[in-house]
Amino acid sequence: MSGNPAPDLVTASRILVAQGVLDAFGHVSLRDPGDPSRFWMSTARPPSTVTEDDFLRFDLSAEPVEATDAPLFSEGVLHAAIYAARPGAMAVVHHHAPALMPFCLGAGRLYPVTQTGGFMGGPVPVWDSADDFGATNMLVTTMEQARSVATALGERPLVLMRGHGATLAAGGLRELVFMAVYSAREAEHFLRAAAFAQPVALSAGELALTRRPARPAIDRGWEHWVATLPADARGDSR
Description:
Number of helices: 7
Distance between the termini: 9 Å
Mean pLDDT: 96
CATH architecture: 3-Layer(aba) Sandwich
CATH class: Alpha Beta
Low-confidence stretches: none
Order of helices and strands: HEEEHEEHHEEHHH
CATH topology: L-fuculose-1-phosphate Aldolase
Largest sheet: 7 strands, mixed
């Protein structure tokens, strides 16, 4: 990855739209490869139309490093709080994938049931804004709220947000995309199986052997998803 990760972020955004993770809403970010106190995120545009020029650097207070008049995501604080709390997090995505939403609405706990979902590590935590903040508009727009989400996420890859959506953190952008796609697919598999019987959870031993996706699998997924994108939908970087 080059010093400017905007091309990769454009490609990641397009992949996540194509795979049904992002739609008009949601956002993906990447910690600056050269400065861990900064991260790259787009201005408030749909991920389907975002361009390289839309990605700006932000500090860990979610303030843009360079002044801009462009509208910004109110939930940029969510990314900032996770990067501040978790030095190993290099990429973050917040989304509202339909497959995961039932598990954000009290439809039971999501837990891994296939080898591609083993990275979830067990039942996925659910953050409820009402626990700490009472009635809200369900968005995460203050640093206090964002830190609460970061605490619920901890060192896990995924946290669900009651009545809202999901947030993932990973050690790299390709890994993040892999986890975002396959957590949504895991939810789909779970719900289909649950129509017939209670899905069988991966055992502790199975989780230990599937918890970290293999790098070749991550790269294969990325290469496949890039290949299925229209050429004009990709960033310059492959």
